[in-house]
Amino acid sequence: MADSETHRGGFGTHGGESGAFIERTFREKIVLVGVTLAGGDPARTDADLDELAQLIDTAGADEVGRLAQRRNAPDPSTYIGKGKVDEILSVCEQVDADTVVFDDELSPAQQFNLEKILGRTAIDRTAVILDIFAQNASSQEGQAQVELAQLRYRLPRLRRGRAFSQQAGGIGTRGPGETQLEVDRRRIQRRIHKLEAQLRAIAKNRAVQSRSRRRSAQSAVAIVGYTNAGKSRLLNLLTDSGVLVQNRLFATLDAATRRLELPGGERVLLTDTVGFIQKLPHQLVEAFKSTLDVVAEADLLLHIVDAAGPDPDAHIAAVRQVLKEIGAGEVPELLVYNKCDLLAGRDIPLGANRDAILVSAATGEGTDKLLAAMADELRSSATIFELHVPYARGEVLAAVQRAGHVLATDSDETGYRIQARLDDASAARLSEWVVG
Ligand SMILES: Nc1nc2c(ncn2[C@@H]2O[C@H](COP(=O)(O)OP(=O)(O)OP(=O)(O)O)[C@@H](O)[C@H]2O)c(=O)[nH]1
Ligand SMILES: [Mg+2]
């Protein structure tokens, strides 16, 4: 049995104050653990662990071993089976690991039990991603968003006897009959409320700015995609900017907006955004919601895919999942395969996406086609139609809502009058109901 006193817990004595789950003063040795649940594919689990290794590296630590298990369902108390926990313990002892990282989110109880048995920090992918975000946040808003996400993750994981803060005295110290745990919870709650208020104020300010942009009638285009797909480099190329580009995950946390003129003279506002990933922690999605509003409110998305990446289709699916979560599932999207210069002779793994545009932000190849496609798309998606749908045809109303963006709905004696922005194909399908 390892001596639990020689290793800090993920939420132990150091966890609270520094905010980091992985130590930064030296490179921690980390064992990765993945589970393939019923119906899952072990090859997928292995690919996920490769990505987790990349996350660990970005967070400043080294993978020294990995274990995978197939299970029908997670074990409620230790996530993996008891036998596997013992196996992890012996691997950890062999390689003198500091921390064990699970690829899926652990419940607070699972985490507690695992740390007790393993005698070392046990954390999950979420904690690693939170760490990276914390390292990369530079703006006041980004820092507040990351801290909020961290505290919401930490709150249910606070433990008795493991102080969140060592500070004593002053406001917020323990009242009569109050345990240290209660004091810590209350302190975190207060901090959460303060951050929420701060973020609301920043978002309100931004909403005022974006309304004034709207009045200038420029189209808004947002660059979205998996982390490290080349979004920032493409923004730099298209707009001659100097946004930070790095071969690291989550280099960009703050949205950057630049003006861009399309070949036909149309002016658009192009915004680079935070990258997405599979199993993106919901705490982060929540905390970044106001920043991600630019995506939900955009007229068009450039969905950037790393053509040379390990599994473009899985990345596309993960990005679309997050887009749905942030209310941007219906925004028209141009699929753009980037880094085509790296494929040298190999086929581009387009799969079902034959219409995708191929570019290289490194060589500039394909960007003229991209600009032309953006102009086309904006023109077609900007057409506003008026439709008249009889009351009895509720399914047509639903079809309009699915097909486009409803701007206004009114009603008369016979039915609904709807103003909607539709693309050409949808307008053709609904032509029977179009009146103007
Ligand atoms: N060879 C090649 N490398 C590229 C291309 N586009 C981007 N890269 C490289 O890919 C890495 C990531 O690029 P970024 O532009 O920072 O990627 P991002 O999508 O903004 O990433 P995050 O902000 O971290 O989500 C950098 O090392 C870039 O130089 C490309 O077309 N070809
Ligand atoms: Mg970026």
Describe the biggest sheet? 6 strands, mixed
* Mean pLDDT across residues: 87
CATH-defined superfamily of the largest domain: P-loop containing nucleotide triphosphate hydrolases
Number of strands: 13
What is the CATH C-level name of the largest domain? Alpha Beta
Tell me the span between the first and last alpha carbons: 77 Å
Radius of gyration: 25 Å
User: Pairing-aware structural class of the strands and helices?
Assistant: alpha/beta
Describe this structure in words.
With 436 residues, the protein is α/β, with parallel strands linked by helices. It has helices spanning 15-18, 42-59, 82-95, 108-118, 125-136, 140-154, 180-215, 231-239, 282-287, 289-296, 312-325, 367-381, 394-403, 424-429; strands at 29-37, 62-71, 99-102, 121-124, 219-225, 256-261, 267-272, 300-306, 333-338, 357-358, 384-390, 405-411, 415-421. The protein has four domains: 4-134, Rossmann fold (3-Layer(aba) Sandwich); 140-200, no CATH class; 218-380, Rossmann fold (3-Layer(aba) Sandwich), CATH 3.40.50.300; 383-433, Ribosomal Protein S8, Chain: A, domain 1. The chain has 14 helices and 13 strands. A six-stranded mixed sheet has the order 6-7-5-8-9-10, with helices on both faces. Helix 11 (312-325) links the parallel strand 8 and strand 9 (333-338). Guanosine-5'-triphosphate binds at residues 225, 227-233, 245-247, 249-252, 275, 338-339, 341-342, 360-362.
